[in-house]
Amino acid sequence: MTQSHSLSEAYPAGLPRLSNSQWREEYDKYFTPNFGKRRLALVRGEGSHVWDAEGRRYLDFMTGISVNNLGHCHPKITAAIQQQAATLVHTTNLYYVPVQIQLGKLLIEHSFADRLFLGNSGAEANEAAIKIARRYNKETHGPSRHEIICTLGSFHGRTMATLTATGQEKTKMHFEPLLEGFKHVPYNDLGALKDAITPATGAIMFELIQGEPVVYPATQEYVRGIRELCNERGIIMIIDEVQTGLGRTGKLFAYEHYGITPDVLTLAKSIGGGLAMGAMLCTEKISTAFGPGAHGSTMGGNALTCAASLAYLTELIEGDWPAKAAQSGEYLRAALQKELGPTGKLKEIRGMGLMIGVDLTVPAASVVLAAEQLGLLTNAPAPNTLRVLPALNITREEIDEAVDILVRAVASVQ
Q1: pTM of the model
Q2: Sheet with strand 49-52: strands edge to edge
Q3: Domains in the chain, start-ordered, CATH in brackets?
Q4: Mean pLDDT by 10-residue block, N- to C-terminus, for the chain (414 residues)?
Q5: What are the strands, taking DSSP E only, across 180-296?
């Protein structure tokens, strides 16, 4: 059973005391229906727990889809946001923003990159990657070098360019005509990728773990083979680490698992410490394509989001949370295998660190609903797949609690 708080404890000051269903009714009056029906209105969070509008507590194994990587309302991030909000929130990029420069220095010092651009989301980060790759190729190789090869099953965003780059037809339906200059090949198939390269190919864009609709890691041979092809043919390697980046996989960046470095890397989700931010990182050579006026953002990297990001990244690095996430991930996968294996309803567990996909023989959506009723939040990105994304600072006790709930939830579904 879920644990409860009194409504006065669960609710922020000034928020109307409505039930979950009442909040749904209010939402339905004003918003477009693209997110569909949901069951809960969450009003408070602390660590790995959240509370709904009726005071019920849940163990959060979604973390805002890998956004709250150090849990909800982390004291250091919260303090940084409060201090910056009382000092300076936004000035635009017409001026230097000192906390933005501090953040940039930290990201560059701990990655392959020489330069970066800050935006507001993963889609914006990937837009920047697409634009800088096209501009660099046209300036360096001429107008015919414009094509970007992507992978089937990928997800890169919801803007028209990132939607076109995405390798899932269901997300593109009725948005045609899409942009020209993108092609898609099967994931983890180096031969198909090699065959797709033409003189027009300027970049290869892919994820190291496909997070949607299922959690599939790239193989070592695939990633290293792409790096070799890019080196041989002067093609830009773009790695989308919007979901895998910044500790989620057990290293600060997922590319570190593969012994390679990209030319361009995108980040978002957790980078803002819970606030909206995206980043495109690149080498010095590629960065020259973004001269003055080539790209921009009004809100990207403003003082408030950079203060939150700086606090998050500092704690992530100084606390060695990626390494701890690797250990917690091993513990969680072993516990899931031990407890779910004997049920006969477990097919496979995949992933790295604390980015885990659990394939079942029963409908995953039904398991998600049963787990929610027992006090655990997770999600089902595919019909028979659970996606498990706990905070990197999750405790062993919280992992044990979550596994116990999942076992009971799976047992209740036929």
Answers
A1: 0.95
A2: 42-46, 49-52, 57-60, 376-377
A3: 7-74+321-411 (3.90.1150.10), 76-318 (3.40.640.10)
A4: 54 86 96 92 96 95 97 98 98 96 98 98 98 97 96 97 96 94 98 98 98 91 98 98 98 98 98 98 98 95 98 98 98 98 96 97 97 97 96 98 98 94
A5: 182-185, 201-207, 209-210, 216-217, 236-240, 264-267, 278-282
